[in-house]
Amino acid sequence: MKNVVSNFHIVLNLGKKTVNELISLAYGIKTTGDVTVITARYSDVLIQAQAAIVQGMIGTRGSDPHPSLTSAEQTEVNKLSSMIIGVKGDVEFYGNKFAAGNRTLFDTIAHRTGFVPQGDRAHQQRIFEFLAADNGSFHCRVPSEGDNITYVFQYGNSTAKDVLPLAWSDRIALSLVELIVAGFTSGDIVGVRYAAVMHGHEPIGHNRVLNYPPMNSKGKVSLTKGVDFLHFSDVIYTSIP
Which of 15, 21, 48, 59 is exposed most, by the fewest CB atoms within 10 A? Predict the structure, then answer.
């Protein structure tokens, strides 16, 4: 018996993109008039207009993986990233509603609306998903963020799909992108979320589950008591076989 998939999620890997690649992604988004994504919070025209603003400000520095940006330039880049992330959320919502757990249908919608890279960059696009699992267990896989990444998982029982678990498990830190947990009762509804931790300085933009520990002026990790720097993914749900 296979797991029942509730939602698929598109991971943009913005932290691995230059400004030029961010602009290219923006120009490739095509949700206006799509038969499945019937509304999006930003139209293609608005996103392209913002991409043009960024392109005009950054110029030839757009190909630099670590450009030196002014405050005004950073604000415009952040705005473009936020617009893309917002529309991505709309594509996920309508895509999941239409696909109803069918990965092929979801991928078709993501590709059609511009959220699957073309050519040899296609491998960068990954989905947070459940895989087939043994009875009494779940098996999930998260998108790879590259080398030297720690993936922090949490899971919890829920009363229904799309209802947040009342309590989360202890955090499970792994260097692997897949997690299997057994010991459940058939029919249990379980939600899973994850965060990814990477050392180094935070790039100009990245997907929100890729976390960079706060660094002090000496390049050392510096945390604040009671403040959690981790930002987790959305929760996906499964029915235990």
Answer: 59
